[in-house]
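Problem statement: downstream parser choked on a complex file, so we are re-checking the raw output for the benzoic acid run. The parser issue turned out to be on our end (a line-ending mismatch), but while we're here, posting the original submission so the record is complete.
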Amino acid sequence: MAELQEVQITEEKPLLPGQTPEAVKTHSVETPYGSVSFTVFGTPKPKRPVILTYHDVGLNYKTCFQPLFQFGDMQEIIQNFVRVHVNAPGMEEGAPVFPLGYQYPSLDQLADMIPCILQYLNFSTIIGVGVGAGAYILSRYSLTHPDTVEGLVLINIDPNAKGWMDWAAHKLTGLTSSIPEMILGHLFSQEELSGNSELVQKYRNTITHAPNLENIELYWNSYNNRRDLNFERGGDITLKCPVMLVVGDQAPHEDAVVECNSKLDPTQTSFLKMADSGGQPQLTQPGKLTEAFKYFLQGMGYMASSCMTRLSRSRTASLTSAASIDGNRSRARTLSQSSESGTLPSGPPGHTMEVSC
Ligand code: BEZ
């Protein structure tokens, strides 16, 4: 039984006009693999899963998810759900550096901490939203606790362990690059890094000067030592819930996500390849991701179309017809978004859809 410890921290969240403040509380729970902190937004909604997020390496829940969850149109979605944002151990703001020789949990062990969090909060089911290492952790959790996962949004997932070629490349890169540069190469495309946009500068600065850089390196090592998830189309090792796979069309993990899509159950999986979004679509394209998320939830029966904004309703109407035309094609399971007009049609989970924009 995990030891429980509670830390209450009041967080600021900007309010929209007419909105009442939500409960926000940060907790910390002791687990067999060390303590883990998480921030809970909102009050329990009966008979609804919670949205549980897990961030990527080099980030924490805020630097990974704040632009998405604070996006204007996202508010009408998330007001219907409690959100539990997990920080990987040592990644929370102000986290002390782990002592030398500290054994950082493997990604599998990080996944095994999630039941302690849910038990502590008395929540039974989740819709997981994970990026990179976080997407891997939520997938692993879903394989071991399939009955508690109602849906998964997996951004930049690489379900494969590093092969020897990857290791050789990793070692070579390590000879000339610092840990922050290697992590930036995992988060952003080479094009984005050389373009050095304000976003890249901000994240480069945050990671390079992070007071917990040693902890970040430990999470990075765990990510690089991950086991293969061994997904197998039609096999026993697969995700059983509706899944939305997301990747930017120039993201470093594009090939891995494409391969992952080929291994998952096509009746349960939607694949969203986002144009012009780089490596972190949740930071650069929160609007499109919000819309895709809304349709994903609708497909699961959680967002009645009456909850949608007038704008979304009209876009859905036009795109539903586009999708049905494309639905006659046998190939389609890909949701491609253009930078101009890309949105997703609603439909049952796993429905074959392609939107050509
Ligand atoms: C949320 O409302 O869930 C949220 C707010 C700030 C940062 C991340 C998430």
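For whoever reads this later: The beta strands are 4-5, 24-31, 34-41, 50-54, 83-87, 126-131, 149-155, 243-248, 269-274, 334-337.
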